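Below is how a single chain appears once it has passed through the pipeline. First comes the sequence as given, then the structure the pipeline wrote out for it. We keep one example in the README because the format questions we get most often are answered faster by looking than by reading.
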Amino acid sequence: MTVRPDGSEDAKASAGIEVVSPDCPISFTPEEQQVWDYICDQLRKAGLLHMTAGLAISVIVKKYRRWLTALEALDQAIEENGGSIMVKTPNGYSQPHQAVHYVDKQEKELLRWLPSCCLTIPTFAKVKALEKGAEQGDLFLDEIRSFMQGRPS
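Resulting structure:
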């Protein structure tokens, strides 16, 4: 699997902000380095400050590559098993191939880490909204003001 070099060109950095990516805190394989470069490039293009996110990004890179490797192993097992995920145990029982559970585990862990680096749509939108000053107002103050305006003097 290759990572597309182009990304979301619609997400542009805010004017006047120079976004710098952190150095890799660990050594990566060439495939992992490609994912690291892609993630950091997309964060820079979007104008999201991520200088202190090196450790979290490296965890995401490792999880992502493990998930892809597990998917490839599962695809190979399904192909070898005639298109089925079910395998026979030495005792004769049928059960899903162990790679099914490993793929699910890696995917869940990856999805848990993605929001920490604004790599999901909701977290990205939230950060961009906060940049524009669209902060949520004080809920209690609004209620008190509304009540006071509705009262007769």
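The CA atoms of residues 110 and 136 lie 29 Å apart.

See the next section for the split statistics.
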